[in-house]
């Protein structure tokens, strides 16, 4: 197809011509309507952003970004007539549906919903096509997804769920983690286990009522139920060692027509990410107040040294994981059409927003918000992310760093003796390195490990059992006993 002077037409030019023709033919029908990226009755141009407030690893492109107002500030620098409409959803599915209908311009969601978004937008084609343009939070080992069971459950591994019902949101990353992990235990999720397709709120109730033996979900549901004493961790997604992440997706047509708006959004996301790194407690409190989640749960995932690492660059490990996830989604019938990941991934926008340091930043997987400082009780510098923990004292604006599990226990003991009220204690699991609540872990005492490693925390019964099997003199002790004797 050629333009009026005989030159080949680009895709963007074809779109503009189609839009012009469509507008000419349908003005009477569209009068008074407002759609994404269009002018409202007052003359302002609305940019519509879809997000998930309780999917807290998207906060730098959603909840936190909205509360800080960074996007609006950047947008006004582009054009004072721009305004932002924020639309909050429970999952990524309705965001995808609204994007395909041209009613949402920019969205944020988890990796599996991103794949579904890309697959369906490519299948629909034309102006419906979308691209993945940035990352919000990620975990290279997959620890953002977990499987929990009731506090009194006798299950110690996923193998113990054979013949039981497991609640999961089919097609979500939490569901994918469960299915892939269950297969490693020799279970056929379609035969040996009944997977009940439920929204997280429904599944949480099913677990408490006993109609489901386990609950497989994404952040922040597992941590929330464990924190509230309504569940205990059975399987840590970090044991799967498959990256999981959340990201930003945009309508291609919108990005082509308004690259300055996309640039403003990504620069605002970078601003929000820097705020989260520099003010982790305040950021967690802001998200908690907006979502109703306990601040301790938000901080577990999003705080310094948290389960999630926040970095907007698109890393090779995450791109590769996206490719590896496609067969699973096809196997459960969520993706029917082939997906060209190469054309779906577009890092040109975030590359421009980050600038000259992009390649170096994208190549690094170190947490920019690692726990640092000095452990005042042990007198040691804190630096190893595999062992560094934190103690959060009620009323304090900063957490206290601990060099390792034993030092963390010593910190807790001293604070208790000093009459301090402790809000939360976080420490990485010995087996997979996943940060978890210290008082919800299984503590093992191993006299042969030496004083510095005498007490070690394990997030799951299976991890603790494996350690005990290899260390004949080791034994399980309660958290309070470990604190007293550290």
UniProtKB/TrEMBL annotation:
Keywords: Signal. Pfam families: NMT1. PROSITE patterns: PROKAR_LIPOPROTEIN. Residues 143-283 form the SsuA/THI5-like domain. Residues 1-38 form the signal peptide. This is NitT/TauT family transport system substrate-binding protein. The lineage of its organism: Bacteria, Bacillati, Actinomycetota, Actinomycetes, Streptosporangiales.
């Amino acid at each position: 197809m050629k333009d009026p002077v005989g030159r080949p037409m680009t895709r963007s030019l074809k779109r503009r011509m189609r839009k012009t023709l469509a507008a000419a033919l349908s003005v009477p029908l569209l009068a008074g309507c407002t759609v994404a990226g269009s002018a409202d009755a007052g003359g302002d141009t609305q940019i519509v952003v879809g997000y998930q407030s309780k999917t807290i690893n998207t906060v730098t492109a959603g909840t936190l970004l909205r509360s800080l107002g960074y996007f609006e500030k950047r947008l006004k620098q582009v054009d004072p007539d721009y305004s932002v409409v924020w639309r909050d959803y429970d999952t990524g599915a309705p965001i995808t549906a609204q994007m395909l209908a041209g009613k949402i311009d920019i969205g944020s969601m988890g990796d599996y919903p991103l794949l579904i978004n890309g697959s369906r937008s490519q299948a629909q084609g034309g102006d419906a096509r979308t691209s993945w343009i940035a990352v919000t939070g990620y975990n290279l080992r997959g620890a953002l997804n977990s499987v929990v069971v009731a506090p009194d459950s006798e299950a110690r591994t996923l193998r113990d769920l054979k013949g039981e019902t497991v609640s999961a949101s089919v097609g979500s990353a939490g569901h994918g983690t469960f299915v892939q992990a269950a297969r490693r235990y020799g279970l056929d999720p379609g035969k040996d286990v009944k997977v009940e397709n439920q929204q997280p709120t429904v599944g949480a109730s099913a677990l408490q009522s006993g109609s489901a033996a386990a609950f497989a979900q994404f952040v922040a549901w597992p941590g929330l139920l464990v924190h509230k004493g309504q569940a205990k961790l059975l399987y840590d997604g970090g044991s799967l060692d498959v990256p999981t992440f959340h990201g930003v997706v945009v309508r291609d047509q919108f990005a082509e027509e308004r690259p300055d708006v996309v640039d403003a959004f990504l620069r605002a996301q970078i601003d929000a990410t820097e705020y989260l790194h520099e003010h982790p407690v305040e950021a967690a409190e802001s998200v908690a107040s907006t979502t109703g989640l306990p601040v301790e749960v938000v901080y577990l995932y999003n705080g310094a040294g948290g389960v999630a690492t926040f970095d907007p660059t698109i890393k090779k490990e995450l791109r590769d994981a996206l490719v590896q996830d496609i067969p699973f989604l096809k196997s459960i019938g969520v993706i029917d059409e082939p997906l060209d990941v190469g054309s779906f991934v577009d890092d040109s926008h975030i590359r421009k927003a980050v600038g000259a340091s992009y390649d170096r930043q994208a190549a690094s997987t170190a947490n920019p918000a690692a726990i640092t400082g000095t452990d005042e009780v042990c007198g040691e510098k804190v630096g190893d992310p595999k062992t560094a923990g934190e103690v959060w004292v009620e009323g304090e604006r900063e957490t206290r760093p601990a060099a390792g599990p034993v030092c963390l226990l010593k910190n807790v003991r001293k604070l208790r003796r000093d009459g301090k009220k402790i809000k939360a204690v976080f420490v990485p699991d010995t087996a997979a390195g996943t940060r978890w609540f210290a008082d919800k872990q299984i503590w093992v005492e191993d006299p042969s490990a030496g004083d510095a490693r005498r007490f070690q925390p394990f997030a799951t019964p299976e991890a603790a059992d494996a350690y005990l099997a290899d260390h004949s003199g080791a034994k399980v002790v309660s958290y309070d006993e470990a604190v007293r004797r550290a």
